[in-house]
Design a protein that fits this description.
Strand content of chain C: 15-25%
Strand order of the largest sheet of chain A: 2-1-5-3-4
Largest sheet of chain A: 5 strands, mixed
CATH architecture of the largest domain in chain C: 2-Layer Sandwich
Oligomer: heterotrimer
CATH class of the largest domain in chain C: Alpha Beta
Order of helices and strands of chain A: EEHEEEHHHH
Shape of chain C: elongated
Radius of gyration of chain A: 16 Å
Number of helices of chain A: 5
Number of domains of chain A: 2
Structural class of chain A: alpha+beta
Number of strands of chain A: 5
Number of domains of chain C: 2
CATH topology of the largest domain in chain A: Ubiquitin-like (UB roll)
Order of helices and strands of chain C: EEEHEHEEEHEEEHEHEH
CATH superfamily of the largest domain in chain C: Aldehyde oxidase/xanthine dehydrogenase, molybdopterin binding domain
Number of strands of chain C: 12
Distance between the termini of chain A: 53 Å
Strand order of the largest sheet of chain C: 1-9-10-11
Largest sheet of chain C: 4 strands, mixed
Chains: A alpha+beta (158), B alpha+beta (616), C alpha+beta (342)
Distance between the termini of chain C: 25 Å
Number of helices of chain C: 6
CATH class of the largest domain in chain A: Alpha Beta
Structural class of chain C: alpha+beta
CATH superfamily of the largest domain in chain A: Beta-grasp domain
Chain lengths: 158, 616, 342
Amino acid sequence: MAQTPVRFTLNGRETGLFVEEAANLLDVLRRGAGDISPKYGCGQGTCGACTVLIDGAPHLGCLTLAATVEGREVRTTGGMADGPGLTALQTAFMEGFAAQCGFCTPGMLMAAKALLDRNPQPTRDEVIEAISGNLCRCTGYEPIVDAILAASGQRGAA
Amino acid sequence: MSSIEFRKDLFADERDDNLNEIGKPKLRQDIEGHVRGRTAYYDDHLFDGLLHMRCVRSPHHHARVRSIDSAGAERMAGVRRVVRASDVPHNINTLLSLIGFGRDDEQLIADRKVAYKGEPVLAIIAETEAQARAACAAVRVDWEVLPHVLDVEEALTPGAPVVNEEYPNNCFDYAPYDHVKLRFGDVEAGFAQADRIVEATYEMSPIEQAPIETCGAIAAPETSGRYVCHTGTQALFFSLGTTAKLLDMPSSKLHFIGGTVGGGFGGKVDSLTEPMAVLGAVLTGKPVKFQWDREEEMQVGAPRGAERWIIKDGVMADGRIVARQFTGFFDAGAYTRLSSYAGTKGTGHLPGPYSIPNVASNVFCVYTNRTPATAMRGFGITGVDFAIECHMDRVAEAVGADPIHLRILNAYRDGDMKAHRRRAKNCALVECCQVAAGKAGWRVSPEDMAASSKTGTTADRQAIPETALDEDGRIGDRKAGRMPSARPAKGTKRLPAGTHGRDHKAVPVQRPDMQQLAERVGHRVAPERDAAPAASPTVPARAPDTPTPATAPSRPTAAPPATSSPPAEARPAAAPPQPMPQLQPAQPKPYEPDTPFRQGVRRPGVSRFLSGSRRR
Amino acid sequence: MAIHPGRGFACINYPIGMNLGGDPAQALVHATPDGKFMVTLSAIDLGQGMKSVTRQIAAEALGVPLEDVHVDTADSDTGPHDMGSFASRGTHRVGNAVIRAASEARAQMMDAASEELEVSATDLDTDGQGNIHVKGAPSRTITVAETAIAAQFKQGKTLSGRGIFLIEPSGVDPDTGEMSPVTTYAHAALVIDLTVDDETGEVEVTEINSAYEVGRALNPKLVEQQLIGGAWMGVSHALYETTEPYYPDRAHGPEDFNSYLMPGPGEIVPHNIAVLERPAEDAPYGGKGPGEMCANPVLPAIANAVYNAVGVRVDKLPITPEKILRGIEANGGAKPQGRPGA
């Protein structure tokens, strides 16, 4: 099958891979680049578990052709913490018990990061809207919304 | 915003609240891995040269396979192996055969007949998932479509198509009957005594577990002829044992790794993906992944099965329920999986958390031409609780009672006799009703607020009543047209009051060092007593059967509770334990069964992975 | 046309474990050279917190700090047999097996310490902070780490334990249904407040007030996770979810999350929970396992509240707008029943 080269930065590191023409970014990140943090939950763009940031905006890895990230900056939860410590968002998820099985967590964190990067003080409704494309079957969402608000310094915000 | 409070004031005398780690809001052990994206689920174990397996599935509810033409598919790009039913060494199983329950009735890959839409008849292993998909689409199957049945009650009628040849009556065999019976007292006498009769039918449609991680497994050759299998199973040794049995392989050749799963909710017990992946690895010598996509998860993967319940209550004008009759249908779909156990578990749950002196139920596990059902959060209970609690409101309305008053009035209390002939203990329904009502501002009478689960039992409520028995519904009678009704029949004989067997408890520790010291137990443990009382004159020696375990157990007659010796009176630094109600004047001789319980087929001397019978 | 408030109640109990055919669980505990403890299981953590709760149980039973215990789940080469994570059996069955394994390891640890301190093991106690001391003489002490080092490098002893917990197998009497299905029950009761739009048939759950009795909240935050998430699932089951919307007809089954409906983060229902703790005699520290039962009372309470709001009894799940509207039509209009318990 025809392979094409793709070069992009993954969590700040220059990355180059040969990918099949029809390959999606989720498969390429996981099996090509070895970054297991984006997850396969549906392959239909409906669950959000594969959410990654491309040039800072959230995208669904399973619906993104890998070839289209040529020259762009891709970020994942796997590269979220720079160094041994965790980011405020990760800490808020951890201390807020905002994960159970943890399978949706990397996608949730990316959706939340995209929001907080462009809107550091979101309202509760803005948080809800930002994660509305990410499904969670365990938590009932409330701890996740609370954790994102807590990370923005608005613990208990309405 | 939600809120949570811990009502430490309630039952405070039964707990030591000053433990070192227990009761503390400690962070989850796995949470840092979750937020770093480092937690490794089965699909996160990367293998070079991984092959992908997909199935050709039935588009029909019920059909015979005349022939399968895979010649075109085999020549397609990337295809490594076509896997046929004949490639499965021991192609017949039932999930609960590992504990000797039920007969083998389901093939891993169907060879001649399919009984539900989505049943696999062929699998293809290819270099990419897309290639495997394309090859599956190119397979041509010549189907002979058969008549099908989808409704549980219709499936029990004499003319209904046979769904599952192992159970030609379209229902699981609870020998000697085709259903699980519960008989306690005499419901007909109760109905005759009642001021009102309230009857209704309830139903729950199938529900998908919908974990965000779909079912799957990756298997690869390891070393010493072994195969490693990374799996999202909810039951590691169920999946390992099932694989060993289907592939006729010693379990020592299998190395299963899992335990970190992206949600399950009951949908990952069935052990279908592991044998497929290991079979793929055996046939190709390469790492093979068998993973369901979301559509398979939704429509092929087993859901929480549908249930239908008919409840008939006899109630007095003051709200006391004096008789309750159930007719229940668990829709198993085409194969047994775990549904046989739902019938048993559901029956043990009846009549709900209430003390009702006359209870009867017939519960069926019915085969229909739909996706086999399996476990889900609340398995065997969710549907019947929906029915019971909707029915309680109907009863409350019929007698003009407040719904919460009706519950507290009928709630089971410590010491009451339950319909499955074991004594209620450790009850807390009344307190839950009171607290929930208080939080919601639902006004409850002072009498109901003063009620307690610890009090309120009476000699009548502790007694096992004389019971009306019948022998209706022997296996095969229904299909032969000799059983017009599924409902519990009128009794034809009487079982004396007080008849019961013995309770079953934890097996004691193997060695004394494994016994937790009494002062470290952390809660009150009552002195040893039998959970089945001697209220009325006890008639011993009716035999509740005992199952055939995988290995013959010794039968301790009065096993001490797991963590109980000596009783916690010795426990320091806690409120003095309340005296437990003394209910039985003298213990009767402990019951000992004289015939071993047999359900399903086990052949002595045969591997435990080869129990059950082959489909003919 | 109007939006009608409705209020409904339900209460339940839930059986913990599955006695049919016995229901064994095993655990192994061993110390590292410097006195940290590894717990090896084949139980499964699927988000319910198996690793976390057994870690807390092991730490409590050993008498060491939580940080000094690590739980590994599910490698069939190292983890001893367990039936699996279902039937609310994890906390009860595996927890008990862990207590037994930890108790044996603790007994060995106390023996090793007694040899070092030259006092009888029965005169020793742990402080839960990593130290072992003589009862009544807190200055005569040895650390768990020193004990483990002495045991392994000087005394030639292991600090390890094996645990199995089995409720003996029980069957069912075919004529009476007599059985010992489980050894303990969890409980719950809750009140649902909702509104029903009699024009669209839409239901909006506005508040849940609940009481859950869980034996003991071994970790209150894990219990909260289960109760909040479980009640969410109950709402979802009651109003939205099915793979066969016209059961028993197989048509119109959803194949993706666009057609398989669940409430999203915009439909979070405020849920006020009270947790009651009546320890079960044979459960680990009395804990019963709240994971499964938490969804169950929500379904009937919603059905009862819908009836209270508009006078329609929807006896078939899920309670869809279509069923409500057909009921309202059959009744000749919405029939509000009046607020109960007022």
